[in-house]
């Protein structure tokens, strides 16, 4: 199929961040502590107390977004700035004001705000008082938080993301059950699935409220879509790849869009006595509410084989279940930080599969290239990142040419930020932040070469991609 010359005129050329990874000021102006703020950090590494200091420097950062020509910016609202403990009776006015000012600044600079409700940073009090998402109370508190922010910002924010990478949170039993508690696989599975459904119920409440309070807004989840290749053409490997894809990707998205578990997975969970408790009323809610689009976070594909001995050298091997084993892909290019694979064609396949299954518009909410980098004579010549972005944007251009509606691209990340797993050595930004491990550095902003490259692509609507 012939590839279009330029991206559509209304394509959202954007970039992403999340609150705890950029804001810093994590106890300022009444903010409560989130699970990310209390997470143990190895000695010498940075925690979330300063990050990129975006809380104090957001105007400078938005000026840089304007200079890059961004059409949209995906950020997340820290639940703990709005409700410091999660279950407070009244919201924190200073928290409400901060995001209101940020949104105004974006709009003043012609940048469309895209707000995520929950990006990994659950109020820690909810974790301690109700076992986080295992407690039905958390659903209720999320609903109140969502209502508050829809009412506060709905006049200006027309794109919302409900939950970022739900499955990542579900897989992390430690986060659900409290630090250091060791449980068996089967027990963990049961808790994970209950927490997963509770998150989905909270998400459905958010869909419902968003549609009621802001009828002209659109809302959807951000999925960490894991495309899974079978290692060989052995039907057992193919089945393992299907099981992995179902568990890691379709489980959450099927709940989001169709309101039910994938059939095979449901049968398996029932057999394992791990199928969650869902009341009739909850089942109705799951079925009734639907998203308007699907947000896609794509970094890499996975390769799996039939269950067997785990391969501890495989990237992301901690995603293993007893139904499949994750292995390294022998063909796809690997890089130091990129979780094992560099796979733009996999991106195209993932988007096609998602559209075929759900028939909803797709918005890329994350995709990016991590590097360890420092300026040389004041310049950061990140050519590998540029090549990565070009290859992945080309995959999107081809996807759009093939008739699949991809409405925007939000690269991860606009500025260097605290990596979810590896601190400040792992940088993703178009803009360098002088933050050195251990909460040190001047926090000066330096535009990388990729900043100028992206600026040019936006201006020319991706003609040379
Ligand atoms: C996604 C998350 O999983 O990947 C981001 O939504 C995260 O918050 C990003 O930063 C990259 O992962 P990491 O572990 O390299 O920071």
Automatic annotation (TrEMBL):
InterPro entries: GH (IPR017853), GH_1_N_CS (IPR033132), Glyco_hydro_1 (IPR001360). GO terms for molecular function: hydrolase activity. It holds the Pfam family Glyco_hydro_1. Keywords: Hydrolase. The keyword Hydrolase applies. Belongs to the glycosyl hydrolase 1 family. This is Glycoside hydrolase family 1 protein. It comes from Amedibacillus hominis.
